[in-house]
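Archive entry. Fields below.
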Amino acid sequence: MNKIEAAQLADLALGSVFLATGGGGDPHIPQLIAEQAIEKYGPVTVIQPQDVADDALVVSIGGVGAPTVSLELLPSIDETSRTLSAFEAHIGRQVDAVASFEIGGGNSLIPLVAAVGKGIPVIDGDGMGRALPEAQMMSYAIAGIKPTPAVACDYAGNQCAFTTSSTEVYERHIRSFAMAAGGMITAAEHPMSGAELKRSIIPGTLSFSIELGRTLRENRGQVGQLLEPLKQVFEKSIYGECRLIYQGKVIDKATRIVGGYDIGEATIQNFDGQGENLNLSIKNEYLLARVGEAVVASVPDLIVIVDYETGTPINAERLRYGHRVAVFAIGCPDFYRSEEALRVVAPRCFGFDLDYIPLEQL
Amino acid sequence: MNKIEAAQLADLALGSVFLATGGGGDPHIPQLIAEQAIEKYGPVTVIQPQDVADDALVVSIGGVGAPTVSLELLPSIDETSRTLSAFEAHIGRQVDAVASFEIGGGNSLIPLVAAVGKGIPVIDGDGMGRALPEAQMMSYAIAGIKPTPAVACDYAGNQCAFTTSSTEVYERHIRSFAMAAGGMITAAEHPMSGAELKRSIIPGTLSFSIELGRTLRENRGQVGQLLEPLKQVFEKSIYGECRLIYQGKVIDKATRIVGGYDIGEATIQNFDGQGENLNLSIKNEYLLARVGEAVVASVPDLIVIVDYETGTPINAERLRYGHRVAVFAIGCPDFYRSEEALRVVAPRCFGFDLDYIPLEQL
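PREDICTED_STRUCTURE:
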């Protein structure tokens, strides 16, 4: 895939919301902005990580904040390009390509807007292979890329430039700026050379999202019919096994914005009311799924909720009482099962008192 | 006064804590750092605002955070000069002189450290004529100086550069950075030309603090003996009337760190236990003094608490149950009684449902 056309954005949004495991931000407004940008500038050029020059300058760009806020505090139309321009002004050099923080709804679309406006390519890949709530959980950070120089802009054009060598410190600083700016901002961060990109990015997730989105669209309908096509798509991918782990009705959902994250829980009950409920723990993303006391899937593996009747993935900020849903779990890319990655993304990093067991062994 | 020697720092700390009206940060560690800097580089050059070239570049520098934190999260020895250097690197130009945010304990001493290390002068004056809790309350901001480019550093050298045209927005951003960095940071902000400095600074407060500190030192002893010398010092100054408004014992004091400020109240009871108590409202500084329902002094006038036996001023973060104290009130400089200033520093700006009445009319 060399180009992304406007007509592919709906599939990209659909597929990337699936991979976002509840987070990543609502894609609706970013999709409209991306459509407008492509109409103005033409299709987005996509480049494979291995085709990026080793000495090229790549920066990752996306939204930071509590996804709930993305439903109300809409990005301004030029927020993305303004952020990239402010980043270039700050470092005194032009950027050669942009990459995603995470494959996730809004955050899959924002880099496209930045790229097309500047006439530079977007990288086919991302920094998580899913969505995760904190900056140090990105593959770039795990692979040792420094988070700064980084620049963030809010909807009104107010800016903040960060300098630190620790992504954990950066996460505190950028998160507090997001909160001070109303809950959601756009950031350009983790600048890296092409060589660094190649050893840190989760490759191919942009084109995979479009393929996944097409599968979801073409098999739109009750979840039973979706499972086989989904399994086939994931089988050929960098992801692990795809399992349907639960079906039922949301009987409880509560999140609060705490420290700039959406934090809370959801409970899903079997359609027949028999057997044990599925309990989900949420920090922006769906992190842990338990049926009774038994863990059925946990971060960094993907937990995905889709509408039972249509197979449309549902972001955590849109999940609500009464939703009839199916819950999928998908093994994460191997990168996130390494010792280095699990040091920052294992269940304990989120306060859950349990070890990570890969989905396939559960 | 053309120079500040190490021997004058104790008087400066004493006088500026008096003018700080409870805030401004504890001066002990900044005084030690300033002594060391003067020992290394020689006395600090002081320049009067009117002697600054109109096209000179001046920046204000100081600590931002909750003063309580300044007792525990100590500044690193090179935090001040590192902040100024980071500011110069950010704007790509050297600074010609530095000024204080506020005359107040630590924040009177920090600019001296920055100045002497760079071999540039410090301005005789400050941006408040006292201490006040928020950036938009500075005379620089009231006179229309933009808050940014501004750069802040924490004790560990992590940096943040801010860009906004609104000091209210800047205050939110810098405060949230201070909180994220542990509660106290050093900032260089409100850069201005010499011409802008002349129309916005509260002049002469650095030399006045030293004179005031000397008066406090030479008249150290029970408050009754201090009142007359104090009145004489203030009579020749830009400040209004100096009144002794209460004497007694602290019977209650409670502050919490809320949103990066120390917020709370203190109650002082007459020594004889008769009559009504004095109630003080605190937001970093002592803002409102009431005896029963009657307002006896309010912001922007100065409310100052001193130790009853020695006349030593007591910062809010050090005030505690059982302290025997005297409470002074001093009319603020005329600048702060203007309509423009009262728009941001009147009692209502702090949530008190009352109009400002100058001390002399109470």
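CURATOR_NOTE: The interface with chain A takes residues 86, 90, 156, 158-164, 166, 169, 172-173, 175-177, 179-181 of chain B (CB under 8 Å).
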